[in-house]
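Reply to dn_fold:

You asked what the input looked like. This is it:
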Amino acid sequence: MSEAGIEIFIATAATLAITIAIYFGERAYRYKRVKENKHAGTYGFNFEASGTHQ
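and this is what came back:
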């Protein structure tokens, strides 16, 4: 087997960084929508924003 060049490690790190950025972006968007009491693609679960309890 041949050794992996540094390019492989850089590409893997970049791909991981992009994936994590997308994940946290979607998560922030979903939490914002829940806070506004709008549908947030929560797989059928209904959540209430923390400030709406009486």
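The radius of gyration is 19 Å.
Hope that clears it up.
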